[in-house]
Amino acid sequence: MRLSLSCTDPQVVVLSAAGDVDLATTPRLSRLLWPRLWSTPAAVIVDLSRVRFLGLAGVELLARAHAYADHRGIAFSVVTSTRAVDRALIAGGLRAGPPCFATSTAARGAAGATDGTDHEYPVARNGQVRSVVTQP
Length: 136
Fold this sequence. Notes:
Transcription Regulator spoIIAA; single chain; 30% strand; six-stranded mixed β-sheet; 136 residues; alpha/beta
């Protein structure tokens, strides 16, 4: 599974996953997701548009994260543009949970993100955001 973190607005965080989100890879997503929820942004968007398989562990993580975000007043949404993700959310009873969008752009718009420069940060296998050096 590949993960990335991007921000177009200081208060809107987008976590993107690609590949399989299963029992073995969900802890990596969790290590990236929870610190963002603890920092109380206005919105957290989990983009699963490039996920081929979403297992029960991933569905449970999304359910817990949505409940926590709702408790803290943080908008939480999921980008689901693949049948595999949609089927997993329905089977897990989560489709009626967090708002789901077909595109990251739609989710960002619903979260009130401003149109700004997208800053994407690669994520290491241990879930830590890699250092990014910007050139002046």
